[in-house]
Amino acid sequence: MTAALDIKGLAKTYGDNVAVDHVHLTVPQGSFYGLVGQNGAGKTTTLSMAVGLLRPDAGTASIFGADVWADPAKAKQLVGVLPDGMALPERLTGREMLTYLGLLRGLSKDVVAERAGELLSVLELDGAEKTLVIEYSTGMRKKIGLATALLHAPRLLVLDEPFEAVDPVSAATIKGILREFVAGGGSIVLSSHVMALVEQLCDHVGVIDKGRVAAAGTLDEVRGAATLEDRFVELVGAATTATKGLSWL
Ligand SMILES: Nc1ncnc2c1ncn2[C@@H]1O[C@H](COP(=O)(O)OP(=O)(O)OP(=O)(O)O)[C@@H](O)[C@H]1O
Fold it and tell me: pTM of the prediction?
């Protein structure tokens, strides 16, 4: 079966900093895939290249077989993306933004109106639908970003830190939406630092360390008999140096 997302040898270097070092990852269709790694490990850079937001130095990425760089129109129809630090049209209201992006996606006015209303309501942004995006809180920005990723009913969702700054009630709602999306045949890749969340939601996991894949596979294959957190610390070799230094504090 064609993979939902197939990343082959993606690489990116900034100056002499190797951000992503020939990463290979396969996200099977119907999987809920968690990408974990320390700050600066290369998750955002990998995901940005995988969805066509950042041109790689080397490697390819394809979404349901459509090459993201050779066949971008086809690939981008199939994917909904929540990028890290998404630049939003600040002077539009939430509804205007969804309408604008929905029409750009080629949806009819009626379909956009119906879906925008439902998304705003389900994500509990209906009270803020007339508020300009510039006035949104960080968590609200995440939620409107998620709404734009879902609007065209993609087959794959690529979400960079979707739960960052989101309150627990909204997080529960979003988890429900994502679980339903996968139950309905969709595929998801999300990045997160929260191991418990990845363990709770994902059936596959990839561990990125210093731009390379340290482990990848089903959740059970990667964590073995340990918790994901213990396995992660073991894999990335993070020394618990918290008590070293700061003697002045
Ligand atoms: N635009 C850029 N210019 C220069 N260096 C960059 C740029 N973007 C990322 N980097 C560097 O690339 C490396 C990987 O960064 P990246 O943002 O992909 O990591 P990450 O795993 O998403 O981190 P975090 O969990 O903190 O979001 C880091 O060393 C970072 O400093």
Answer: 0.93
Q: Quick check: CB of 45 below 6 Å from ligand 1? A: yes
**Ligand 1 atom closest to 37 (CA):** 21
Strand order in the sheet with 187-192: 79-82, 156-160, 187-192, 32-37, 204-209, 212-218
Q: In the chain, what percentage of residues exceed pLDDT 70? A: 97
Same domain, yes or no: 62 and 101: no
Q: Which of 50, 25, 36 lies closest to 157, judged by CA?
A: 50
Residue 50 is inside which H or E element, if any?
helix 43-50
Only one residue has tokens 């230094």, namely: 245
Residue with CA nearest ligand 1 atom 5: 14
Q: Tell me how far apart the 2 most distant CA atoms of the chain are, in Å.
A: 63
Nearest CA residue ID for atom 25, ligand 1: 39
Q: Which domain holds residue 112?
A: 86-153
Q: Kindly state whether residues 237 and 164 are assigned to the same domain.
A: yes
pLDDT tens per residue across span 166-206: 889 889 999 999 999 999 999 999 999 899 999 999 999 99
Q: What b/e sequence results for 63-74 when a residue is b if at least 16 CB atoms lie within 10 Å of its CB, and e otherwise? A: bbebebeeeeee
By alpha-carbon position, which residue is closest to atom 2 of ligand 1?
Answer: 14
Tally of domains in the chain: 2
Instruction: Report the chain's mean pLDDT, rounded to a whole number.
Output: 93
Query: Predicted ipTM?
Result: 0.97
Helix, strand, coil abundance in the chain, percent, nearest 5: 40, 25, 35
